[in-house]
């Protein structure tokens, strides 16, 4: 019965016309399932029931595929909430972006890598950032203060933050690092902090301490600071 079901699914995929949106949606689903490193044009074609060359009518190469995937998931971010103050609107939008990244754990690294590699962000990211600037401007921010706000918010606008230390759970220890007792003797304050803090592994985006509490703490601190700069 399971084999018949798989064959029926394959026939359905083959008969459904291929489109760019279908290609990108399938790629996002594959990345969600096995990580973006496991994604290949061949595997994607197999999932869609087509030959690999058919994909190139819709995405010219792997980087264009990744850019398109970014636009698909950024499209999941909630639109701005109407009839509210700027701080609430920004906070809700950023936390929606964070929920999107928690649904797609591979995405923060790809967004960061592709934004560094491209001359400009992808169209959906540009539209999202433009709308965020619009929220600040409508809230009374000058162009100069918006410029500062966008810098200080940084990657947090897209739902994650770049961490100084990578203390993700399950990370392989550095084979060249001194033993823990020697590290504690050399760096007592880091050792004290590391032994005292705990993180929610289920809400970590990317690597490091970026769990939900830490993210919202920094987000609220930033928004409160920006509010104090308004005339």
Commentary on this structure:
Helix content is 62%, strand content 0%. It contains 12 helices and no strands. The protein has helices at residues 2-15, 20-34, 41-48, 52-55, 62-74, 86-103, 107-117, 123-138, 143-153, 180-186, 188-196, 212-229. Helix 5 crosses helix 7 and helix 10 (180-186) packs across helix 11. The longest helix has 18 residues, at 86-103. The radius of gyration is 21 Å and the shape is flat. The model has no long low-confidence stretch (mean pLDDT 85).
Give the topology, please.
Elements: H1 2-15, H2 20-34, H3 41-48, H4 52-55, H5 62-74, H6 86-103, H7 107-117, H8 123-138, H9 143-153, H10 180-186, H11 188-196, H12 212-229
Give a quick summary of the entry.
With 231 residues, the chain is mostly helical. The chain is built from 12 helices and no strands. Helix content is 62%, strand content 0%.
Largest sheet properties:
none
Share of residues in strands: under 5%
Compute the number of helices.
Answer: 12
Proportion of helical residues: 55-70%
Mean pLDDT: 85
The helix/strand order is HHHHHHHHHHHH
Number of strands: 0
SS-based structural class? mainly alpha
Backbone CA Rg: 21 Å
Unreliable sequence segments: none
Report how far apart the termini are: 68 Å
Principal-axis shape:
flat
Characteristics of this structure?
231 residues; mainly alpha; 12 helices; 62% helix; 0% strand
